[in-house]
C-alpha cells in the first residue's frame, strides 16, 4: 500500500519525531497541543514543564521553537488542476521561510493619541520638548515604560508632533510590543508622510510579526528618506524572506491567469459544440425542423409530381442545402414559402427560377401549374417575354383615330 505522504514529508515527520524524543516538553507548546492530545489518546504521557531551546538554536522542523508565533506566510498552492479530467487537486505547497526572531503579536491597549484638533500654546510646546528630553534620558537607561509615559504626556501637550509618536513606538519595540509600535508609527506618518523614523520602526515591528514584505517596503522607504545603517541592516535581514514570498505570489498569480484562460477556452469550445449540434439538428433550414409548416413545406407536405407525399424523384437535398447558403437564394425562398404567390417576383431571376424548376419539376406547392419545360435560357426567355408583355401592357397606348373620322380640310 502506498504511503499517503510524499517522501519529503515523511522525512520532515521523522525529523520532528526525533526532535520530540530528545525534547519531549516541546509538546507543551500551544501550537503542538494536537500532537500532545494524540499521544495521550494512546496512553502516552508528556512530561510537564516549559520547553527550552537547545543549544543548536533551531528546531529541525523549522521556525523558532521558543516562540509561539505561527509562520506569517503559508502560501497554499490554490491550483486545482482546472482541466476537466483532473479529479485530484494539487498538494499544498508552503514557502519555506526563516522564522527566527518572529514573536507573538501583542495585545497592548491603544495609547492616547492626543486631540488632533488642539493647537498648543508656546508654553505647551516648551513643556512637551522638556518631556521629550526626559523620555530620551529614560530610554538611554533602558527604562522603556518610563520613556513611554513621558512621550505620552508630550503628545497630550503637542499632539501634532509626529516625532513624539515615532519615538514612543521605538520604546514599544524594546518592550516587544510590535502592534503598539505600528499604531504609533501609523499616526506619525499620518502627520508627516516623510518621517524616516516612523518607517524604520514600523518596518522593524512588521519584521518581528513575520510580515516580511511589509517590513522590507517600510525599511526601504526609511533608507530612501534618510539612510541609516541600522535600518539598512534590518532591510538586508528581511530581504531573503520577502523575495521568496514575492516570487511565490507571482507564481500563484501566473497559475491563476492560466486557469482563467483555460476556463475561457473550454467555455468557447462548449459553445461551439452546442452551436454545431443545433445546426446539425436544424439541418440549416429556417425554423426548428426545416421549412414552415407542420411537416416541412406548406400545405399537405407533398411535392407535386413526387410520387405522392414526400420528396420528388431525383431530389438532391445536399445540392439544395448548398444553394441555400447563398443569402439571395435564402431570402427568396423565405419570401416564397411565406406566400407561394410571390414566386412571380422571381421569374426573371435565373438563379431563383432555375432552382425552383430543377428541384420542383411538377410545380411548387400552392404555386399553380408547374414550370415550363426546356432549358434555363428558354425558361428565362419565356418568362422574360411574359414580363415584357406585361410591362408593355402597362405603358400608355397611343390614341387611335376613329375610323369614322373624315378630314374635311377645315382647321
TrEMBL record:
<comment type="similarity">
    <text>Belongs to the FAM10 family.</text>
</comment>
<keyword id="KW-0802">TPR repeat</keyword>
<keyword id="KW-0677">Repeat</keyword>
<feature type="region of interest" description="Disordered">
    <location>
        <begin position="245"/>
        <end position="290"/>
    </location>
</feature>
<dbReference type="Pfam" id="PF13181">
    <property type="entry name" value="TPR_8"/>
</dbReference>
<feature type="repeat" description="TPR">
    <location>
        <begin position="128"/>
        <end position="161"/>
    </location>
</feature>
<feature type="compositionally biased region" description="Basic and acidic residues">
    <location>
        <begin position="386"/>
        <end position="403"/>
    </location>
</feature>
<dbReference type="GO" id="GO:0046983">
    <property type="term" value="F:protein dimerization activity"/>
</dbReference>
<dbReference type="Pfam" id="PF13414">
    <property type="entry name" value="TPR_11"/>
</dbReference>
<dbReference type="InterPro" id="IPR019734">
    <property type="entry name" value="TPR_rpt"/>
</dbReference>
<dbReference type="InterPro" id="IPR006636">
    <property type="entry name" value="STI1_HS-bd"/>
</dbReference>
<dbReference type="Pfam" id="PF18253">
    <property type="entry name" value="HipN"/>
</dbReference>
<feature type="compositionally biased region" description="Basic and acidic residues">
    <location>
        <begin position="245"/>
        <end position="276"/>
    </location>
</feature>
<dbReference type="InterPro" id="IPR011990">
    <property type="entry name" value="TPR-like_helical_dom_sf"/>
</dbReference>
<comment type="subunit">
    <text>Homotetramer. Interacts with Hsc70 as well as DNAJ homologs and Hsp90.</text>
</comment>
<feature type="region of interest" description="Disordered">
    <location>
        <begin position="62"/>
        <end position="96"/>
    </location>
</feature>
<protein>
    <recommendedName>
        <fullName>STI1 domain-containing protein</fullName>
    </recommendedName>
</protein>
<keyword id="KW-0175">Coiled coil</keyword>
<feature type="region of interest" description="Disordered">
    <location>
        <begin position="367"/>
        <end position="411"/>
    </location>
</feature>
<dbReference type="GO" id="GO:0005634">
    <property type="term" value="C:nucleus"/>
</dbReference>
<feature type="domain" description="STI1">
    <location>
        <begin position="317"/>
        <end position="356"/>
    </location>
</feature>
<dbReference type="GO" id="GO:0030544">
    <property type="term" value="F:Hsp70 protein binding"/>
</dbReference>
<dbReference type="InterPro" id="IPR034649">
    <property type="entry name" value="Hip_N"/>
</dbReference>
<comment type="function">
    <text>One HIP oligomer binds the ATPase domains of at least two HSC70 molecules dependent on activation of the HSC70 ATPase by HSP40. Stabilizes the ADP state of HSC70 that has a high affinity for substrate protein. Through its own chaperone activity, it may contribute to the interaction of HSC70 with various target proteins.</text>
</comment>
<dbReference type="GO" id="GO:1902494">
    <property type="term" value="C:catalytic complex"/>
</dbReference>
<feature type="compositionally biased region" description="Acidic residues">
    <location>
        <begin position="80"/>
        <end position="96"/>
    </location>
</feature>
<feature type="region of interest" description="Disordered">
    <location>
        <begin position="105"/>
        <end position="124"/>
    </location>
</feature>
